[in-house]
Amino acid sequence: MTQAPRSLNHGEGKEALLSATVRVVAQKGLRGLTFRAVAEEAGVNNTLIAHHFGTRDKLLAAALDWTADRSIGAADLSEYATDAHAFRTALVDNVLSAPDDEIFQFEMILESSRRPELQPAVRALYRRYVSALAAGRERLGGPSSDALNLALFAALDGLMLQYLSRAITADELAEAVEALGIAVGNPAEATPSH
C-alpha cells in the first residue's frame, strides 16, 4: 500500500530524498532506482526530486557525496589519534553503522565502470576516503606515503566488500583491519593489547 505524501519542513526534503535514494539502491540496486521509488520510500511527492536535483544522475551524485560526508563525519576519528587500536576499532564501528551507505557506494562504483559520466564522482569519493585515512594515519605517526595510503584504503575497501557480500563476518572484518594496521604500523603496535 502506497502511503500518502507527507509534508516536510524546509530543509528536510533534500535529506529525506538522499536517504531514500540510498535505501532504494541498497535494496533494489541501481536498476530499481526511479523517482517514484525514491518518493515512495521518502513518503513525498516525486516532483520534489526534480525540484531539488533535476536529473537521476544529479540525484545519484548528490547521494554519493552525502554518504561520503556521513561515513567520514559520523565519528571524529581524530579523538583516537594517539591510540592505533582504538582508531581501527572506531573505523570499523563507523563503517558497520551504515551498511546501506556502503552498498550504495559500491553500486555506484560498479555503475561508473559502465557509465563514464559517473566516474568523476567516484574518483572524488575515493580521493576523500584516502585523504581521510591519510590524515588519521599521519596523526598516529605511522609510515605514510600516497601510494601506501591508497593501498591501505584498497585493502579496507576489499574487506568491506567481502563483509557486505557476507563472505566474512563483522568479527573477521575487525580482526583483518587490526592485522592490517599492525602490519603497516609502528613496531610497538605489533604486541596486541588484549
From TrEMBL:
InterPro entries in alphabetical order: Homeodomain-like_sf, HTH-type_TetR-like_transc_reg, HTH_TetR, Tet_transcr_reg_TetR-rel_C_sf, TetR_C_31
Signal peptide: none
Boundaries of every HTH tetR-type domain copy: 11-71
Organism expressing this protein natively: Microbacterium alkaliflavum
The protein, known as: TetR/AcrR family transcriptional regulator
Pfam family, one: TetR_N
UniProt xrefs under PANTHER family: HTH-TYPE TRANSCRIPTIONAL REGULATOR BETI (PTHR30055:SF234), HTH-TYPE TRANSCRIPTIONAL REGULATOR RUTR (PTHR30055)
Keyword Zinc-finger: no
Keyword set includes Coiled coil: no
DNA-binding region(s) in UniProt: 34-53
